[in-house]
Design a protein that fits this description.
This protein is of the alpha+beta class. The protein folds into two domains: about 10-80, Outer Surface Protein A, domain 3 (Alpha-Beta Complex); about 85-165, Alpha-Beta Complex (Outer Surface Protein A, domain 3). Helix content is about 20%, strand content about 35%. The chain has helices at about 60-80, 140-150, and strands at about 10, 15-20, 25-30, 30-35, 40-45, 50-55, 85-90, 95-100, 100-105, 115, 120-125, 130-135, 160-165. Strands 11-12-7-13 form a four-stranded antiparallel β-sheet, with helices on one face. It has a three-stranded antiparallel β-sheet with strand order 1-6-5, covered by helices on one side. The relative contact order is 0.14.
């Protein structure tokens, strides 16, 4: 039995789960998420607990057992608490601001970068600390949007300028002056 797959998922108060074949909809205070899973996995709600079982011990089935449980757990946590990623914008002249719902980044290009939030994603900007917070109930979407924002100007190793995740460590390189003869 999979160590992850056999763990039950407790359903907090206010979270509703609807199972329609291999399509699962989870709704809660933060929003609603829907996802289709492999038809081999049996998903059931019993006594306020969500359980995932597998029909046999084939290697391919075993691989999807833990994955299905982890994805369902992420859905339940997302509609309960939500997810967020914090990005730091570092560099002379680099800044972020909100215009309505849109995120506008000045990153040293000849034009500002305007990012429209996808459905279910919100941006928050703190100009004092130069941080951008990406929030939403879908963990996958939050991570993807944060990675797209970071992709506009990844941190360069010589001066440390660019966009990085909060707490990310960047290995710094010595420049020309640090070269040994």
């Amino acid at each position: 039995m999979s160590r992850i797959g056999k763990l039950p998922i407790p359903l907090p108060a206010g979270v509703r789960v609807q199972i329609d074949g291999n399509k699962v909809t989870v709704a809660g205070p933060q929003g609603e998420l829907t996802r289709e899973f492999r038809p081999e996995m049996q998903i059931a709600v019993e006594k306020g607990v969500l359980r995932v079982t597998r029909p046999n011990d084939e290697q391919s089935i075993k691989a999807f057992h833990g994955l299905t449980r982890a994805l369902l757990n992420n859905m339940v946590l997302g509609v309960t608490n939500g997810y967020s990623k914090v990005l730091e914008v570092l560099g002379t002249g680099y800044r972020a601001e909100l215009q309505g719902q849109k995120l506008v980044l000045n990153l040293g290009f000849s034009h500002p970068v305007v990012i429209e939030p996808p459905a279910g994603i919100q941006f928050e900007v703190n100009p004092r600390t130069s941080t951008v917070t990406v929030k939403g109930c879908d963990k996958e979407a939050v991570g993807r949007v944060a990675a797209e924002i970071r992709g506009w100007r990844p941190v360069e190793p010589y001066l440390g300028k660019g966009i990085r995740y909060q707490g990310e460590r960047v290995r710094r390189k010595a420049g020309k002056a640090g070269k040994a003869k």
